[in-house]
Write a structure and sequence with these properties.
CATH architecture of the largest domain: 2-Layer Sandwich
Distance between the termini: 39 Å
Shape: elongated
Radius of gyration: 20 Å
CATH superfamily of the largest domain: Dynein light chain 2a, cytoplasmic
Number of strands: 7
CATH class of the largest domain: Alpha Beta
CATH topology of the largest domain: Beta-Lactamase
Largest sheet: 5 strands, antiparallel
Oligomer: single chain
Number of helices: 10
Strand content: 15-25%
Order of helices and strands: EEHHEEHHEEEHHHHHH
Number of domains: 2
Structural class: alpha+beta
Length: 245
């Protein structure tokens, strides 16, 4: 939802205009987020963060859904729809190419990228955009900002915003309920993941589970596809990070 004048939360408390967010301290923003707890207010929270850092547009995505069809990985956004649709395929491709170690190092580290040259932007909006990755429970998110040309975003303030984004998103019921999903891995796939984490080969796992080596390799391939990892080592790192083994 867009703020206009005064908004009223589900608890009946009024919320000041988002445009004053830049003058708020971290503690004041945290208290504001507590008052805005609820799925319907996630867009308000992200708008407050965008205003706090001096950005004009925000885009919040879920990386565990980015491999799926459509734009279901978009959580909330006020970016132009055509721009989101154009960028979606590139986000999925870039995420698939990165290693699990790179994904871990990217958390709370602001990065700047350029939008494709053929993208049509709103007036006076820079072609450069900023990404902030953060985690809520098992789920990794990225908050992306567009900003006006000539605006310089503070690195320290951006890192603070990443922490605040995770804090704000943790209050949202729809996020909390979906972060507990089992990543769509079957019991057999989880068993194979456990045994490769124990250092077992496909032949050894086949003996342990009483099924063929080819079947084990098929399960492991399925695990890597679902977790967007490229090697067994990356799959193990993913499993450890998400408490799957």
């Amino acid at each position: 939802m867009e703020l206009s004048g005064m908004d009223v939360t589900a608890q009946g408390r009024s919320v000041p205009e988002a445009t004053d967010a830049r003058s708020l301290s971290r503690a004041q923003l945290a208290r504001r987020f507590s008052a805005l707890a609820g799925a319907d207010n996630l867009q308000v929270i992200m708008r407050l963060l965008a205003d706090h850092v001096g950005a004009s547009h925000f885009l919040l995505v879920r990386y565990d859904l980015i491999q799926e069809h459509g734009l279901d990985f978009i959580v909330t956004s006020n970016w132009p729809f055509d721009l989101v649709r154009r960028l979606g395929a590139e986000l999925a491709s870039g995420y698939a190419r990165s290693t699990e170690l790179e994904k871990c190092f990217s958390v709370l580290a602001p990065t700047f990228s350029l939008l494709p040259d053929d993208v049509v932007l709103p007036d006076r909006i820079s072609r450069q955009y900023c990404s902030l990755t953060f985690c809520v429970g098992r789920t990794r998110f990225s908050l992306m900002f567009l900003f006006q040309e000539g605006i310089i975003l503070s690195q320290e303030q951006l890192k603070e915003v990443g922490l605040l984004a995770a804090y704000g998103a943790s209050f949202v019921e729809s996020v909390e309920s979906r972060t507990e999903r089992d990543f769509e891995l079957t019991e057999r796939e989880l068993e194979c993941l456990f045994w490769i984490a124990e250092g077992k080969t496909s032949d050894e796992i086949a003996v342990i589970l009483g099924i063929s080596r080819n079947t084990i390799n098929n399960y492991i391939t399925s695990v890597m596809r679902k977790t967007a990892t490229k090697t067994r080592s990356e799959a193990i790192a993913y499993a450890v990070r998400n408490n799957l083994v």
